[in-house]
Specification:
With about 280 residues, the protein is of the alpha/beta class. The chain has two domains: about 180 residues, Rossmann fold; about 50 residues, Alpha-Beta Plaits. The protein is about 25% helix and about 20% strand. It has seven helices and ten strands. It has a six-stranded mixed beta sheet with strand order 2-1-4-6-7-10, with helices on both faces. Strands 3-5 form a two-stranded parallel sheet. Strand 1, helix 1 and strand 2 form a beta-alpha-beta unit. Helix 1 crosses helix 4.
């Protein structure tokens, strides 16, 4: 088949998943000389409608990895906002240099449930949002070459698909079942419990631009009092990474100990993974 339109679809609070998904979608659109469109469902405003794809579309769908899975607060959006009709797809996850665990398997399965058919899948290591010391600069030039190579291989596979017959979805990790969420560890190896931690604000640095309010994917930072949150914090770091005065930070001891553990054990160059 030759898709008429290639969609880059992603949840990307920190920006890495956006960059990877758009790169792959762009290479595929170029290979097929197809129209290219983007659906960024990171912010609440983009989740007020549903999206339907046809059999002549190609969807490159990307999410980050949180605790080894598709982010649990984003999963309902993946499950309810998108539907296809035997629509070819490419599943993509990013991970912060530790491991993507079951996130790619889970995303592949959810896309199938949505009526899409993942024909290729990939996991890419990116700079960890918790620390500038973990996978700094990734995706780098070597990663970009691997993305392009993967997209070109996926294009050849998709081009050979005969939509008049049943097409088997790609197998990820030999179709291993989705594992439980990864339990974050502190430096001493015990569980790090920071589920209820929220970012603090240094008001002496804050100029009240409200960028943190605008970029929160959960829409839970109170614009009238930015030290308060009206709902869950998913620790995506968007408000921290995009604060131009660096006024936001975490001081939760368990969170900081978990970051120290990651910096101690996961600074080696993690490999990307591909399934075709």
């Amino acid at each position: 088949m030759e898709p008429k339109c290639v969609f880059a679809v992603y949840f990307s609070p920190a920006g890495s998943t956006k960059a990877v998904t758009e790169r792959i979608a762009g290479t595929l659109a170029e290979a097929f000389k197809s129209e290219r469109k983007t659906i960024d469902f990171t912010l609440p405003g983009a989740r007020e409608q549903k999206y339907v794809f046809g059999p002549q579309d190609l969807v490159v769908f990307g999410t980050p990895t949180y605790a080894g899975r598709v982010p649990n607060k984003a999963l309902p959006f993946v499950q309810t906002l998108f539907s296809g009709s035997r629509t070819p797809a490419v599943a993509v996850v990013t991970f912060g240099n530790r491991s993507y665990d079951s996130s790619l398997s889970e995303l592949r399965n959810e896309l199938l449930n949505d009526g899409l058919v993942p024909l290729a899948a990939a996991a890419f290591s990116c700079r960890h949002v918790f620390s500038e010391k973990i996978a700094a600069g990734r995706p780098d030039a070597e990663d970009l070459k691997e993305m392009d190579s993967f997209a070109q291989s996926a294009a050849k596979k998709i081009e050979a698909v005969d939509q008049s017959s049943t097409t088997e979805p790609v197998s990820v990790k030999n179709d291993a079942p989705v594992e439980p969420y990864y339990v974050p560890k502190k430096e001493d190896g015990t569980p790090a419990k920071f589920l209820k931690a929220i970012p603090k604000v240094d008001l002496s640095k804050c100029d009240h631009c409200l960028e943190c309010v605008r970029v929160c994917p959960m829409g839970t930072i109170d614009p009238t009092d930015i030290e308060k949150m009206t709902g869950p914090c998913i620790k995506c770091q968007a408000c921290i990474l995009k604060c131009h005065t660096r006024a936001r930070y975490f001081d939760n001891p368990d969170f900081l100990s978990h970051v120290a553990m990651l910096e101690k054990n996961f600074t080696r160059r993690a490999s990307n993974d591909f399934f075709l």
